[in-house]
């Protein structure tokens, strides 16, 4: 269950990272409130997951999900660069996340 909570926390991190773009410096109320809620929710779920999972693994996976997801959505939503090298390193990040899950003592 902790892994499911951690993945949801990571997905919420993607949401708030992308949400930052839509807040326009927290000048737009609705995106700002949604982004703030996603930040709080993501942190609370991360904290819950770390009650069971090792902090180093949980934090690395949480950040990895957020970073990979934000980069991928940046490419899709904001036409950010999608060079072969960037895609290669995003793929390596995903492999690292999976590797941390597979080698974690808590399944």
How are the elements arranged and paired?
Elements: H1 2-23, H2 29-49, H3 55-78, H4 84-103
Helix pairs in contact: 1-2, 1-3, 3-4
Q: How would you portray this structure in words?
A:
By secondary structure, the chain is mainly alpha-helical. It is built from 4 helices and no strands. It has helices spanning 2-23, 29-49, 55-78, 84-103. α1 runs antiparallel to α2 (29-49), α1 (2-23) packs across α3 (55-78) and α3 (55-78) packs antiparallel against α4.
Descriptive labels:
single chain; about 110 residues; mainly alpha; 4 helices
Outline: flat
- Largest sheet features: none
Mean pLDDT, rounded to whole units? 95
SS-based structural class?
mainly alpha
Number of strands: 0
Number of helices: 4
In short:
The protein is built from four helices and no strands. It has 107 residues and is mainly alpha-helical.
